[in-house]
Amino acid sequence: MLRPQDSATRERRSLTGLWRFRPDADGVGRAARWFAGPLAEARDMPVPASYNDIVPGRELHDHVGDVWYQTTTRVPRGWAGERVVLRFDSATHRATVWVGETEVMSHEGGYTPFEADVTALVTPGEEVRVTAVVDNRLSWETIPPGMVVETDHGPRQKYMHDFFNYAGLHRPVWLYTTPTTYVSDVTVVPGIEGEATAEHPTGTVDFDVAVEGQGDVRVRLLDAEGTQVAAADGASGTLTVADAHLWAPGDGYLYDLVIEVLGADGALVDTYTQKVGIRTVEVRGTEFLINGRPFYFRGFGMHEDHLTRGKGHDDAEMVHDFELLDWVGANSFRTSHYPYAEEVLDYADAHGIVVIDETAAVGMNAAVGAVLGMTVDQVFSPDTVSERTREVHAQAIRELVARDKNRPSVVMWSISNEPESHTPESEEYFRPLFELTRELEKHRPIGFVNVMYSPADQDRLMQYSDVVMINRYYGWYNDTGDLAAAEDALEAELRQWEAHGKPIIMTEYGADTVAGLHDLTGAMWSEEYQSEFLDMYHRVFDRVDAMAGEHVWNFADFQTSRGIVRVDGNKKGVFTRDRRPKAAAHLLRRRWTGRA
Ligand code: BDP
C-alpha cells in the first residue's frame, strides 16, 4: 500500500492533534450509534498516542474493549474533482471507521495501515466528521494472541508476550487526494549486474507500476542531486544505472523513482515518487551478504515504548533513538515484536540502518507464557492458535510485505518471535506461512526467531528459515547468575546451530538491570552483572565463525503487563526507559565503535 505524499498532483491533510475520546467498556456504542453525532461525555485524547497512560488511574490503563475517537476537519476547497482517501497508519488492534454516519471500513491487526475512498462522502470546503471505534482485545484469533478472562470485577486481558498491550491510534491519520486516474501501487526490486563489489557497479531497478484507470506510464530515476540517470516508458521494466551509488549500511543513499501517468494528450495526470535504494541481499553459507560483502548485525531488539505516549509515534523520540543507536555504534535493529511506524522505516532507509522486519506474531508459546504467569495447556490446537489464527497471521504477513516491500533498509522478514517450534502442531501451522512469505518475497531472506524451549536438537522450523535467528538467556533464565556455566552452555548450543550451515544471528541476549544498582559480588540486576553478561556472550560469539550478528535485548527498558517477574516493566534495556545509558551502553559502544 502506497504511503500518502504531496506531489504535483496529490495533497495530504494530517488529522493528528486532539481528538474527542470515550471508552466503551460495555460495548454499547455501536448499537447506540455513537458515530451519528458529536461524541457525548468525551474527553480530549492526543493522536497519535496510546490512550492507556494519558489519564491517571487503573481504568484506562487496564481498559478492555472498545474506545471511541472522533474528530472533525474541513476538507480543503481545492480538492473538488479529486479522489479523497481516509487513511489510518494503524489502529491497535482493530477498528471500524465512519465518515459522517456512513461506515467506510474495518480493519484487523494493530500495526499496519488501512484506508478507504471517501470521495462520495465529503464536500470540498465543508466540514466532515470522522469517528473510529478501536478495540484492544486479543483472542486466539488475533496476532498477537491473547485471552479475555471474565471476572467478578470485569474483563481482564491476558497474553503470553512480554510487552504492555498499549492500544489506540498510535500513528498519524490522513485525509489525502489522488487524481481519479492514479498510481495505486509500485514494486521495485533492486539488483547489481556483475560483481557487486566492483568499484563502479552497474545497478538495476526492476519496476512494476499499477495504475487505476487509463494512462501511459513513464518513469524517471533521479539521483540524490536530482540528475536523471535512467528513464523508461511503460508500467514495468528494468532500469540500468551505470556507476551506481549503492545503498549500504551506514550510507542510506536513495534514488527517486518519479512515476508519471500521462493522459491521451500527453498531459500529466498523476505523479508519485518512490524512494529506491540499490542494494542486494544474499545468504551464502554462513555469511549474510549486503552488496556482496559480509554484514555483521550489531544492534538491538527494540520496542515502540515511551513514558506517557506508550506506542504513540513521535518524531523527537524517534530521532533521539536513532541518534542513540548511532552513538552506541549499532548498524541495525529488529522491529521486535510488530511492524513499526512507517516514519521509522523511512528514517532507516535514509540513514542506512539495517532492519529485520517482524510481524506481530509473538507469544505463541506456553513455556514463555508460564514465565510471565499465564497457564495454557496447548498453544497450537483447534481451540487455541488454529487454522483461523493462521488466516489472520497470513494477512498480517501480506500487509507487512505490501507496506515495506520497497524498503532498502529491510533485509529480512521475521514471521514470528519465539513460537513453540519443536512440535508437529507448530510445524503444521507454520509451514504454509513460510511458503506464503516466500511467494510474496523474491529477493530477501526470510526467517523466524527461535526460543530456548525449542533447542537446536528439537526445533522443526529452522529448516524453513534462511538464517538462524535465536534468543538466548544463559546466565538469566537458565544457569541463573552463573556466567561460567552459562558460557559453556551457550557455546555448546551455538556449535549445534552451526551444523545448519547458515548464518547465526543472536536476536536477543540480555539481563534485567536496575539503573544505579551497583555490586562487586556479581549480583544479578546490577549494572556490573549486565556488563559481565554481555561481555561473556561477546567472547563466545567471537569464537563461533557462523555468527553473523548480535542484537542485545533490549535497546531500552519498556513497559509490560503486571506480574511477579517484572518491576515497572522489563529492565533489560541498555538505556533506561527515559533513555539514560546504563554502564552496558558504554561497554557496547567500546565494542561496536572502538571508542571509549
Ligand atoms: C524473550 C522475548 C522478549 C522478552 C524477553 C525477556 O522475545 O519479548 O521481553 O525474552 O524475557 O522471551 O526479557
TrEMBL record:
Assigned keywords, A-Z: Glycosidase, Hydrolase
Example GO molecular function: beta-glucuronidase activity
Pfam family, one: Glyco_hydro_2
GO term, biological process aspect, one: carbohydrate metabolic process
UniProt key word Hydrolase: yes
InterPro entries with a match to the protein in the record: Beta-gal/glucu_dom_sf, Galactose-bd-like_sf, GH, Glyco_hydro_2, Glyco_hydro_2_AS, Glyco_hydro_2_cat, Glyco_hydro_2_CS, Glyco_hydro_2_N
Domain of life: Bacteria
Domain Glycosyl hydrolases family 2 sugar binding: 13-179
Record keyword Transferase present: no
UniProt-recorded name of the protein: Beta-glucuronidase
Span of domain Glycoside hydrolase family 2 catalytic: 281-593
EC number(s) from the headed UniProt entry: 3.2.1.31
UniProt record similarity statement: Belongs to the glycosyl hydrolase 2 family.
